[in-house]
Specification:
- The chain is built from 9 helices and 2 strands.
- It is an all-alpha fold.
- Strands 1-2 form a two-stranded antiparallel ribbon.
- The radius of gyration is 18 Å and the shape is globular.
Length: about 190
């Protein structure tokens, strides 16, 4: 692709979709219609299938935030189906992990802890193959929360401690320590 005498690479196009996703997620709570239309426009114009499905996964998140659980499940399922047809690389593992996490969130929202736990663990498995680490604490926290809801406090404590360990090793304490300690406090209150 040539624009204004400058060659645009696939990496530039991927960065563009990633920038759109950041932009729409920044405004999703204040203007969902804008977020959705901006994302759908970007999805229509992208030539890269991975970018299209990144957009679709983001649409799943927007549906979840808007309370459209059925649509969120459907779109996340379409993302999983796409990754099933692809050679699993680090980027497809990451996308797959996000989709599994979205499905887990949907099941957690409707209080189906066993199903949520199943998908959160699948998200963790995929994420561990993605070459990324910054979302690992989130996944551990989600799993720990489901174990707390199920009354399996020893497993819950194990996953909260894993989240804390990863947070410490990544030096991300300011982002994750509060939810981890709140989760542990809730767990300890349940044990009283």
């Amino acid at each position: 692709v040539i624009a204004c005498g400058k060659k645009t690479t696939n990496k530039d196009l991927n960065a563009k979709m990633d920038n759109v996703i950041v932009k729409v997620m920044d405004s999703v709570y204040s203007n969902q219609a804008y977020s959705r239309s901006t994302l759908e426009t970007a999805m229509k114009t992208t030539k890269d299938s991975l970018d299209f499905y990144k957009g679709l996964q983001t649409l799943s998140s927007i549906c979840f935030i808007g309370g459209n659980i059925d649509s969120a499940l459907l779109t996340a399922g379409q993302v999983i189906a796409f990754t099933d047809r692809q050679k699993l690389t680090e980027p497809t593992h990451l996308l797959r992990s996000l989709a599994y996490n979205s499905i887990g969130n949907c099941f957690a929202h409707i209080r189906k802890q066993d199903s949520a736990l199943y998908y959160y663990k699948k998200a963790l498995d995929s994420y561990s193959l993605s070459g990324e680490a910054k979302k690992m604490p989130d996944l551990y926290i989600n799993i720990a929360d489901m174990y707390t809801r199920k009354g399996d406090y020893s497993q819950s404590a194990l996953y909260f401690r894993k989240a804390l360990s990863v947070t410490d090793s990544l030096r991300m304490g300011e982002h994750f320590e509060f939810p981890i300690y709140v989760g542990l406090a809730q767990l300890y209150m349940e044990l009283r």
